[in-house]
Design goal:
The complex is a heterodimer of chains A (about 425) and B (about 110). Chain A is an alpha/beta fold. In chain A, about 25% of the residues lie in helices and about 30% in strands. Chain A is built from 10 helices and 26 strands. In chain A, helix 1 runs parallel beside helix 7. Chain A is globular. Chain A starts with 12 loop residues before the first strand and ends with a helix. Chain B is α+β, with helices and mostly antiparallel strands and about 110 residues long. Chain B has one domain: Roll (Ubiquitin-like (UB roll)), CATH 3.10.20. Chain B has 3 helices and 5 strands. The termini of chain B are far apart. The chains are: A alpha/beta (about 425), B alpha+beta (about 110).
């Protein structure tokens, strides 16, 4: 029985499954929007929400400690009556509006937010259980890596994506010999143009990282600890440590078992709502319909998690404000700050500003059918801010002017905005 | 214990207690000041924690590095005393600090 007339929803319970960026923002946004009922965040990670991006960067490099990763201080949750519960949700019972937990307990909800995130894809190869073989997704993973660092002279990283190359940079900073093995023909193949891949390959090689592409690891070998990585072409690479960073897969099984639609994640509309109007999803686990591009989007990024969390919280509070934020990403490697605005998939033209073949600063602008769709900016914050502005206004600059690095960004901006 | 004040574009004031060794951005986030969401967690990567420091306090908020400067140059609603809140370290010397929030973040 519902009775929300007398006490403006104080008896309502919103349960958030998960406790990462999306969950923390969703809880915060609920309170900002005046949610008066209980907020209960359930996670099996045994920690308050923490920043994941520094895990492969400053935290791995030993430049920061675990406490400083907290998204909000512990007192914040108490002050705003956000309950952080340790537990593993094993089932959603939509008819009864309850959750079943692994310890057998039940938890009722009026509104449910799924912020279940992703988990790493494991290489299905021999030796993956050996000591010294690590994933890199959670704080616990990186604490394990840090414990192994003193005995590590040589590391092999499987995967030349963001996690792999950020990890390579962090390990090189500590004097460790690093080999990166990438299955595709170039690093960052899934996300950038060849010129950007070539730039990052050069930067890493100049830093002493050995990168092999077009290569597949087939076994990790060693007695108790990993000692070498063996590849399909017969080569092998000695290793005191292996870090596997080949991607993640969304945690959507809970939603699927409850009869919610899933397809590469939990399917939600532009309001972050599932087909059950009391259930929303946000963050890396959510595959969202974007009416502007007419495409489904499941993004693995903190800014996206935060924006979806805000949208989802608004939806739970009865507002209807569709998500229309511009996707953006960043990656720190060595002294390089890569800032990405938009999504480059499907591009048919790339305009380069600056020289990626030498130096440490340039930008790549991606076009599709004459329209700007994305930009990768390396140590080029003005270009990044410019691109964000153009993309959110759906304005397209003249590619020839854009490529001319002698014209300042300020001038380009004036030309476009008039 | 010291205090500082955030003033929203519509004039709403948020007086928050100062905690030394935390950034201005963290103060905003920890006190749920609307409009500063700390998207990148304080890495000077997103430009979404733009504040305009009250002129009387500007000199006390410390030096701007080139990365922050570049972001600020392209920030809409930029002003001579603009800063990114993630790059201001709060100390007891900033007791009484007043900052204004822009209407929109980038």
């Amino acid at each position: 029985m519902k009775n929300s007339t007398s006490n403006s929803g104080q008896d309502q319970v919103c349960v958030i499954v998960g406790a990462s960026h999306a969950a923390a923002q969703l809880a915060t946004s609920l309170r900002q929007k005046g949610w008066a009922g209980a907020i209960r965040m359930i996670s099996d990670e045994g920690r308050l929400p923490y920043q994941r991006p520094p895990l492969s960067k400053a935290f791995l490099a030993g430049e920061t400690d675990a406490d400083s990763l907290a998204i909000r201080p512990p007192a914040f949750y108490a002050k705003h009556q956000i309950e952080c519960v340790s537990g593993k949700v094993t089932a959603i019972n939509r008819r009864e509006k309850t959750l079943t937990l692994a310890d057998g307990n039940e938890q009722r909800y009026d509104k449910l937010a799924l912020c279940t995130g992703t988990r790493v894809i494991r290489l299905p190869i021999q030796g993956k259980e050996l000591a010294g073989v690590h994933d890199l997704r959670s704080l616990a993973d990186v604490e394990g890596i840090r414990r192994d660092l003193p005995r590590t002279r040589r590391a092999v990283i499987i995967g030349g994506g963001y996690i792999g190359l950020e990890t390579a940079a962090s390990l090189r900073k500590q004097g460790i010999e690093v080999v990166v093995l990438e299955r595709a023909e170039r690093v960052f193949q899934r996300v950038t143009a060849p010129a950007v891949s070539a730039f990052y390959q050069r930067i890493h090689e100049e830093a002493g990282v050995v990168i092999h592409t077009d290569i597949a690891a087939t076994a990790f070998e060693g007695e108790e600890r990993v000692e070498r990585v063996v590849c399909a072409d017969g080569t092998s690479y000695p290793a005191d440590m292996v870090i596997v960073g080949i991607g993640v897969t969304p945690n959507s099984e809970l939603a699927e078992a409850a009869g919610l639609e899933t397809n590469n994640g939990i399917v939600v509309d532009e309001y972050c709502q599932t087909k059950d109007r009391d259930i929303v999803a946000a963050g890396d686990c959510a595959n969202q319909w974007d009416p502007h591009s007419g495409q489904w989007r499941r993004l693995e990024s903190v800014p996206n998690a935060m924006e979806q969390a805000k949208t989802a919280a608004a939806t739970l509070c009865g507002e209807r404000s569709p998500q229309n934020s511009l996707p953006w990403f960043w990656s720190d490697q060595y002294d390089l700050k890569l800032q990405i605005a938009g999504l480059s998939q499907g591009y048919d033209q790339v305009v380069i500003r600056g020289n990626p073949d030498s130096g440490r600063s340039f930008a790549a602008f991606y076009f599709r059918e004459g329209q700007l769709i994305a930009a990768d900016c390396v140590n080029r914050s003005p270009e990044f801010m410019f691109a964000k502005k153009l993309l959110s206004q759906k304005t397209t600059p003249d590619p020839t002017r854009l490529a001319d690095d002698t014209i300042t960004v300020r001038n380009l901006m004036e030309e476009v905005t008039g | 214990m010291g205090y500082m004040t955030f003033i929203e574009h519509d004039g709403t004031r948020h007086k928050v207690e100062i905690e030394a060794d935390k950034s201005l951005m963290q103060h905003a986030a920890d006190n749920m000041v609307p409009g500063i969401d700390a998207d990148c967690g304080g890495e000077c990567a997103c430009g979404t924690c733009h504040v305009i420091v009250d002129e009387a306090w500007y000199a006390k908020t410390g030096k701007i590095n080139s990365s922050e400067q570049q972001m600020l140059e392209m920030t809409p609603e930029g002003a001579p005393t603009s800063r990114l809140a993630c790059q201001i370290e709060i100390t007891d010397a900033l007791d009484g600090l007043v900052v204004h929030l822009p209407e929109f973040q980038m």
